[in-house]
Amino acid sequence: MAINRRDFLKFSAGTGLMLAAEANVGNRADAKELPRDAVGILYDATLCIGCMSCMVNCKKANSEPGGALYHRETAGKIPYEYEGEEKKYDAPTGLSADTLCVIKAYRENSDAQGGVFSFIKQHCLHCVNPACVSVCPVAALQKDPDSGIVTYNKNRCFGCRYCQVACPFGIPMYEWEKASPSVVKCQLCNHRYAQGSYSACCEACPTGASLFGKVKDLREEAARRLALKPGDTYAYPVNHIEHGKTTEQVVPEYVDHIYGLDEAGGTQYMFLAGVEFDKLGFNPRITNQIYPEYTWSYVSHVPQLIGALLVAGTACRIVTQKLDKEKDRDK
Amino acid sequence: MESNPAIKTWTPATIVMMLLIIFGVGVGVYRMINGLGATTNLNDVYPWGFWLGLDVLGGVAMAAGGFIIACAVYLFNWKKYRPIVRPAILTAFLGYLMAVLALFLDIGHPFRLWHPSIMWQYHSVMWVVAMHVIFYTTTLGLEFSPMLFERLGWEKARRAVGKIMIGAVIFGVMLSTLHQSSLGAVFLIAPSKMSSLWWDTKLPFHFLVSAVAMGLSMVSFETALSQKFLHHKVDKEIYFGLARGVMIVLGFYLCLKLYQLFAVASPGMAFDGSVEGNMYLLEMLVGVILPLCILAVKKYRQNTRVIFSVNVLVIVGVLLNRMNVCLFSMESYNTWRGMSYSPSWKEFVVSLGVVSIGVFLYKMSAKHLPLFTH
Fold first, then answer.
1. Residue B140 pLDDT > 70, yes or no?
2. Chain B residue with Cα closest to A182
3. Which of A146, A225, B119, B129 is the most buried (most CB within 10 A)?
4. pLDDT confidence tier of residue B1, bands split at 50, 70 and 90
5. In the A/B pair of chains, how many CB contacts fall below 8 A?
6. Is a pLDDT exceeding 70 seen at residue A166?
7. How much is the mean pLDDT over chain B?
8. How much is the average pLDDT of B61-74?
């Protein structure tokens, strides 16, 4: 991953302005609370060793029937990334129609030794109030009322790609090369969760960097880690927070922030890191505003506008007709 | 009623249009078989491109003349504009049909275009937009139908439509006003991607006002073209009135945009030499400031040649605005994501084909339908 410093600065210049604009929107009527049994992932970048087991297991698990990468035409095949002639199994450069989950590396001063370094895992954040669900005109994208997982139904989707424009994290990908394309994004292994299992990425993670669990447990766990003293040892839960498996690790120096607790109104996939989040590829202009409210503040007024305009139009016609008749009489 | 013998079907212009239509249809078929990736340069960072910006957003704005003139004549009772009601409604009808055609090609599953009509999701602006397109295109069809019935001599049908015409106009004005603003509201969801030179909570209103300016210019523009090529004689006062309208609406629009520039964005952003800044300046200069400067002079405001040039400026300016909102406003975000987009030749060919179909149908209507009888 290469994040150009100058582009980044230029781009983040707008952040202050967006914060100022945020105050203008305040229609909370449509906002939803986190479902009680909402599940998610806590990714601790300081534990990640960049082995990419999550990516490999993600592709495998999601190529099975019900998975987000499954297609009837290519059943039984795992969609590898192809770049040029060379087949690339586990090294996609970013999210794509074939990749739901990707590990990227951030390195400051790449030529110097021992500089600031971090991995970051990218996939759908499963927002508490997802922009994509709110903008989808045919309800192909939906948020499960119990698990809070943002799912996609390819049979409803008609391909307007508004979700791609709306998602502040730039997650939904499209199958541009197909004549009958779908949107592709992580659905938190919804098909496995339904069978009592959990996300493939967390299942494969050897260090506990990706940890599956109830969002409220994960939030507590994240807060606990931030309260730890750097240098102490801590028994980090591995794979699934309820399974009791742990690994002892030395506590690193954390950035004092849980990314995803408040961003975009809160997400079910949360992050801890030792490097500032802006450097890890998060759009610095993402605010804590609930995104669907931006459009709902307009859409919620449409019925009133329809009424007002019909009344105004009719009144206008009646008045002008009356005036016209009076004019005729005067003649 | 007979076809207008003064309008010849086969002229060099028609032949060029026919060729463009054939190429456009060819590429359209290619897109249906091979998909969007093979036809367009769209990608995951630029999911909306040239077709959406120009054909759909631009096309709908160009069609705004229909509801404005219908409103002026039927609701405000400004009888002066009666001669241009029919051409304006026809333009709007064709504009919407063209936009639907472009949408048909632009969405991933063309044959699911009807999905929003049964799969309701009323939180989505896109769903609101889709409903407006469906209802307004139908309403425009109704408003257009008397021309067809007159030509066919279906007196009963014509009288039936005549009875509900006023209702259709009121309904159409409501739909169109909301549709124009809803297209702006579509972009409200992307504050962390768009430059604040465009993004604003009042974006729907900006879209509506600029569409009104565009609609007035478009009606004046096409009336002038009809006068020259299709022998439609109209009173000069109509042009003067429309130009006055353009001036007033553009003046108001300038105030809105200036307020937005100073209160939401910052003036420095327009002059920092970035792609966004330059595109913003271009759009404002061509579409707003230059036309306003020209129209401010009374002598120019009453010269049909000058008015024609002003109309071209306004049309180009508002089209630029739609392209900017759709594409260039997200330039720095998209560069940051490491992607770029420039339309492929196939996208141009399809767009040209779509526009040609519209112009060709307009010409055929002028020849065969009672379009200019008043």
1. yes
2. B108
3. B129
4. low
5. 207
6. yes
7. 93
8. 94
Q: Return the CATH number of the domain spanning residue range A5-300.
A: 3.30.70.20
Give the closest of A168, A176, A298 to B192, CB-based.
Answer: A168
Predicted complex ipTM = 0.91
Tell me the shortest Cα–Cα distance from A1 to chain B, in angstroms: 10
What is d(CA B50, CA A138) in angstroms, rounded to the nearest whole number?
24
Quote the tokens at residue A299. Answer: 């859409």
Token pair recorded at residue B126: 């896109």
Q: Which tokens hold the place of A311?
A: 């009344």
Q: What fold does the segment set B40-338 form as a domain?
A: Formate dehydrogenase/DMSO reductase fold (1.20.1630)
Q: Which of B34, B125, B182 sits opposite A179 (nearest CB)?
A: B34
**Least CB–CB distance from A283: residue in B38, B107, B192:** B192
- pLDDT average, residue stretch A245-254: 93
Search chain B and give the residue with CA nearest A180: B109
Structure tokens that stand for A15 in this block: 């952040």
Choosing among A8, A95, A132, A138, which should be mutated to test the B contact, i.e. which has the most B CBs within 10 A? A138
Q: Domain segments of chain B: what residues?
A: 8-39, 40-338
Whether B301 and B243 have beta carbons less than 8 Å apart is answered as: yes
Q: Do B123 and A296 count as a contact with CB atoms less than 8 A apart?
A: yes
Residues of chain A numbered 38-67 and touching chain B (CB < 8 Å)? none
Confidence at A85, pLDDT banded by 50, 70, 90: low
Q: Contact, B254 vs B288, CB < 8 A?
A: yes
Share of chain B above pLDDT 70, in %: 99
Which position has the higher pLDDT, A4 or A282? A282
Is A315 part of the contact surface with chain B (CB cutoff 8 Å)?
A: no
What pLDDT sits at residue A294?
Answer: 94
Q: Does A316 touch chain B (CB under 8 A)?
A: yes
A136 part of contact set with chain B, CB < 8 Å: yes
List chain A residues with CB under 8 Å of B128.
299, 302
Average pLDDT over residues B266-270: 90
The pTM of this model reads 0.91
Q: Out of A63-72, A223-232, A237-246, B210-219, which region has the weakest mean confidence (pLDDT)?
A: A63-72
Instruction: For residue range A320-331, list pLDDT tens digits in order.
Output: 999 988 888 877
- State chain A's mean pLDDT as an integer: 86
CA-based torsion, B265, B269, B274, B279: positive or negative: positive
Does A122 reach chain B within 8 Å, measured CB to CB? Answer: no
Whether the pLDDT of residue A44 is over 50: the answer is yes
What are B102-107's contacts with CB under 8 Å, separation 24+?
Answer: B102/B51, B102/B52, B102/B55, B102/B56, B102/B59, B102/B350, B102/B351, B102/B354, B103/B56, B103/B133, B105/B28, B105/B31, B105/B32, B105/B51, B105/B350, B106/B36, B106/B51, B106/B52, B106/B55, B106/B56, B107/A158, B107/A159, B107/A160
Q: In this predicted model, what pLDDT tens digit does every residue of B301-323 receive, in sequence order?
A: 999 999 999 999 999 999 999 99
Query: DSSP string of B47-74?
Result: -S-HIIIIIIIIHHHHTHHHHHHHIIII
Instruction: Answer whether A319 touches B (CB < 8 Å).
Output: no
Of B45, B174, B192, the CB nearest to A18: B192
Which member of A96, A158, A162 has the closest CB to residue B112? A158
HSE-up (13 A, CA, CB side) for residue A89: 7
Chain A closest CA to B24's CA: distance in Å? Answer: 18
